[in-house]
Amino acid sequence: MAFPAISAVYEGYKVFAVVDASGTYSKMAQEITLARVVQAGVGSELQRTWDREDAMAWAEVYTHIFPAYQQLIENYTKAQEVVQNQENWIPKRLKRHSEP
Asked: Does pTM top 0.70 for this prediction?
């Protein structure tokens, strides 16, 4: 998570990382990585779990405080729709590269 996130910030992107999905079993490694990405300007997920009845209400609040958070919510919503509808969704930019 750290290298792509920090590189994207360096390239001028606004980056948000889902810290609890970083794939490490070491609490120390997680804390060090979090400190590095925050210092580089990467935003992190604000809520411990979305598995709650009021999750979407909180998402709405976050988008008013952090307007760029709206993009994260839109991506999450689309991903859930793809899974629920069992769609084979490939972004247009990737389709162009995979076409013969």
From this structure: no
